[in-house]
């Protein structure tokens, strides 16, 4: 990690494409949500991808965020009294956040890898994870979400329908249009061009 030099050639192209996916406007919305959700004591990052990464890097802000989405009696992530300074402790804190986010309902494909944040490999993936977490919190509507509900899209929810026995019987008598009909259809009189000519 410490001896990693600059990327060249194809690696540099790939990294620049990943960096272009980072959204500065989304960063502002996510910072506003995190501050509204956790309180002003989490502070604010410097603007830009690097400032956002440094703010979240030790995992404390992320842990406070996921804990704030649970009721006061059940906090999934243990937060140390002093922020961790050792690299493996910081990465462990991020991993605890990722586990708690998955338990909350964020699907695995939306969850970033620890190095995406810690080494700033893919900060757009970090944004995607936070967006998925916010969308779930808004959708659950359990009173633990703080902030503007319009910041995130609600996920689609199941809309169960109940039918009475008489409604089900009535439905069996109806032939839906998707079934089609062959009333009056026949191939009588149809021709497909001239017959094949065999010349010897």
UniProtKB/TrEMBL annotation:
Span of domain Calponin-homology (CH): 24-137
Source species, domain of life: Eukaryota
Cellular component GO terms, alphabetical: cytoplasm
Gene3D superfamilies on file: Calponin-like domain
PROSITE patterns to which the protein is assigned, alphabetical: CALPONIN_1, CALPONIN_2, CH
Keyword Transmembrane appears in the UniProt entry: no
Keywords assigned by UniProt, alphabetized: Acetylation, Cytoplasm, Muscle protein
Protein localization: Cytoplasm
Similarity section: Belongs to the calponin family.
Protein name: Transgelin
Taxonomic classification: Eukaryota, Metazoa, Chordata, Craniata, Vertebrata
């Amino acid at each position: 990690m410490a001896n990693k030099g600059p990327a060249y050639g194809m690696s540099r192209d790939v990294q620049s494409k990943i960096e272009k996916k980072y959204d500065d406007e989304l960063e502002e919305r996510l910072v506003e949500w995190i501050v509204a959700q956790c309180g002003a004591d989490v502070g604010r990052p410097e603007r830009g991808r690097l400032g956002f990464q440094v703010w979240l890097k030790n995992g404390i802000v992320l842990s406070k965020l996921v804990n704030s989405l649970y009721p006061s009696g059940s906090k999934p992530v243990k937060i140390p009294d002093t922020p961790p300074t050792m690299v493996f402790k910081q990465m462990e804190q991020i991993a605890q956040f990722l586990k708690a986010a998955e338990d909350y309902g964020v699907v695995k494909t939306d969850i970033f890898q620890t190095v995406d944040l810690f080494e700033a490999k893919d900060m757009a993936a970090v944004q995607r994870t936070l967006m998925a977490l916010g969308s779930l919190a808004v959708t659950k509507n359990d009173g633990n979400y703080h902030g503007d509900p319009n910041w995130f899209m609600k996920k689609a929810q199941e809309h169960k329908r109940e039918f009475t026995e008489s409604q089900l019987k009535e439905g069996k008598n109806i032939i839906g249009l998707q079934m089609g009909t062959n009333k009056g259809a026949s191939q009588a009189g149809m021709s497909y061009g001239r017959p094949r000519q065999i010349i010897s």
